[in-house]
C-alpha cells in the first residue's frame, strides 16, 4: 500500500483541502512553492504510464477539479503549474498517480 492510499484511508494525517467521491487533494509535506497541493485519484493508478482509456472520465474530472482548487487558492490570475512526475526519469517518488498544483511564485522553466 502506498503512502497516498494511507492518506485516503486516514491511516496517516494530511492537510486535506478538497475531497469528493473520486479524488482527494492535500498540501504537500515538502512544499516547493508557497502553494503546493497534491491531487490524487482515490482509485489506485500507479502512474501516468499505467493510465488506460477507461480512466478518461476520472482524469478529466481531476483536471477540472485542479482548476477549481487553484482558483480557490487564489492562483488563477497570477498563474500556476500542474505537474505529473512519471516513473524514474520523471522523478516520481510515490507510485500513486498525483497532480502537483504549484503556485504563489514565478516558476522557472525548463525543469532540471
Ligand atoms: P513525486 O516526487 O512527484 O512522486 O511527488 C511526491 C510528493 O509527495 C513530494 O512532493 C512529497 C510528497 N509527500 C511525500 N510524503 C508525503 C506525506 O507523507 N504527506 C504529504 N502531504 N506529502 C508527502
Protein described:
- This protein has 112 residues and is α+β, with helices and mostly antiparallel strands.
- It has one domain: HIT-like (HIT family, subunit A), CATH 3.30.428.
- Helix content is 24%, strand content 22%.
- It is built from three helices and five strands, in the order αβββαβαβ.
- It has a five-stranded antiparallel beta sheet, covered by helices on one side.
- A hairpin with a 3-residue loop joins strand 1 and strand 2.
- The radius of gyration is 14 Å and the shape is globular.
- The model has no long low-confidence stretch (mean pLDDT 98).
- Bound molecules: 2'-deoxyguanosine-5'-monophosphate (DGP).
- The site of 2'-deoxyguanosine-5'-monophosphate has 13 residues, from strand 2.
- 2'-deoxyguanosine-5'-monophosphate binds next to strand 2.
Round the Cα radius of gyration to an integer and report it. 14 Å
Say what the CATH topology is: HIT family, subunit A
Per DSSP, the total helix count is 3
- Rounded mean pLDDT score: 98
How many discrete domains?
1
Q: Any idea of the CATH class?
A: Alpha Beta
> Helix-strand pattern, N to C?
HEEEHEHE
In short:
The chain is of the alpha+beta class.
Question: What is the element layout, followed by pairings?
Answer:
Elements: H1 3-8, E1 16-19, E2 23-27, E3 35-41, H2 56-72, E4 80-83, H3 87-90, E5 99-103
Antiparallel strand pairs: 1-2, 2-3, 3-5, 4-5
Bound molecules: 2'-deoxyguanosine-5'-monophosphate (DGP).
Attribute tags:
112 residues; alpha+beta; HIT family, subunit A; 3 helices; binds 2'-deoxyguanosine-5'-monophosphate
Amino acid at each position: 500500500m502506498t503512502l497516498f492510499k494511507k492518506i485516503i484511508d486516514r491511516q496517516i494525517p494530511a492537510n486535506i483541502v478538497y475531497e469528493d467521491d473520486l479524488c482527494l487533494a492535500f498540501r504537500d509535506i515538502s512544499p516547493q512553492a508557497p502553494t503546493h497541493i497534491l491531487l490524487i485519484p482515490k482509485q489506485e493508478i500507479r502512474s501516468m504510464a499505467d493510465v488506460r482509456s477507461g480512466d478518461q472520465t476520472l482524469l478529466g474530472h481531476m483536471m477540472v477539479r485542479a482548476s477549481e482548487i487553484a482558483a480557490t487558492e487564489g492562483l488563477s490570475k497570477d498563474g500556476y503549474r500542474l505537474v505529473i512526475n512519471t516513473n524514474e526519469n520523471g522523478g516520481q517518488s510515490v507510485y500513486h498517480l498525483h497532480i502537483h498544483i504549484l503556485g504563489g511564485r514565478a516558476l522557472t522553466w525548463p525543469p532540471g
